Fold Cytochrome P450 hydroxylase.
Amino acid sequence: PGPASGCPVGGGAVGGGPEPALFSWEFASDPYPAYAWLREHAPVHRTRLPSGVEAWLVTRYPDARQALADQRLSKNPAHHAEPGKTGIPGERSAGLMTHLLNIDPPDHTRLRRLVAKAFTPRRVAAFAPRVRELTDRLIDGFAERGSADLIHEFAFPLPIYAICDMLGVPAEDQDDFRDWAGMMIRHGGGPRGGVARSVKKIRGYLAELIHRKREELRRDDGGGDDLISGLIRASDHGDHLTEAEAVAMCFVLLFAGFETTVNLIGNGAHALLRHPEQRARLQSSLAAGETGLLETGIEELLRYDGPVELATWRYATADLVIGGQPIPAGDPVLVVLAAADRDPERFAAPDVLDLGRQDNQHLGYGHGIHYCLGAPLARLEGRTALERLLTRLPDLRLGADPDELRWRGGLIMRGLRTLPVEFTPSA
Ligand code: HEM
């Protein structure tokens, strides 16, 4: 739509007029037309968020990429002109603020180097059989029924069990984690008290677990092969990690790696079910024992309808200019990954899902020093989940009218509340 047709984000109001109705219910189901309009008419746009905080939305690919790498845009909420209004509810009071997504160099460099020593591609690759086992166990839970809700029965539990296993959370405690994490997801934008309580419970649990593992490592000189033990070992042999930093690190691994992966699987399965020709293409390639299309396909699903709609908060530490728009120091900047990844100036036919897309340097995992640390794990989980689903339930189909599917209206993440599916029951 051109300017004459009015602003689909509400009221024709860009730059000064009444607030655009971004973040409405319709917007949550399909934000892409509004993003296309913003990219074209107001690529760096100041808006009021549902929380009341005002922030700049950056929607064009080159501006987004540049902003993600611009270190004058700090991740530290103390740089917000009104600190305390952003972040995960309860995070501040639980003392979890010093994690990777909230800090800048040199602290960020030190902590990221430390965790990179423990979170290695080798450790992730060694985890592949376990992810496959978890995936198959979850499918076993509903395969004979002929129907399921792919979010609650599949996409939701897989990443939480996977990251718990990787961190070294004992099996008997993992269901508690599942409940706390569920509380955080379900009420992401809702009753803040419940989320704050879950955040505190997770914090308390992690502090105790880290303490226990540190003691175990001291006693038997070697210790476990889990990520927390790896982190403690790395910190004891180099840069030091305080107890508070260790807890915040585990917390960020949990929450950065959880809802994102739920939505990669959920949004990915949804996109495949809505594009039968692409799904058939993927199924025949899998049946022929090829993995190439699965690999490019996961990247394309991330670009096309990725889990992280907006990158996490950034704050201008100086007056600066993005895409020709002056931004005053202290203002928050939100980079809209979902808009940048559909920029027609960067991607040919950006609204078309093409699992074989080659030129696909999407921003779904971010860019620059905060580039997703868990990308190898996310890819492993995403590939395994979709490969096992399509292989074991070959006639998987949507079990609801597509227009009736409900999307969560959270700010940062994009994902479905439920994804009902049907299929021929199998043993
Ligand atoms: C950072 C996306 C899965 C851990 C990020 C960022 C994005 C992202 C966009 C950068 C945020 C920013 O710059 O504001 C995703 C997506 C995932 C995923 C789309 C799934 C499909 C995971 C997993 C883990 C993880 C499984 C770990 C278990 C992290 C961490 C950071 C991060 C620790 C912060 C890195 C830093 O600040 O240096 N992720 N992520 N992510 N991600 Fe992921």
User: Anything to note?
Assistant: The two ends are 50 Å apart (CA to CA).
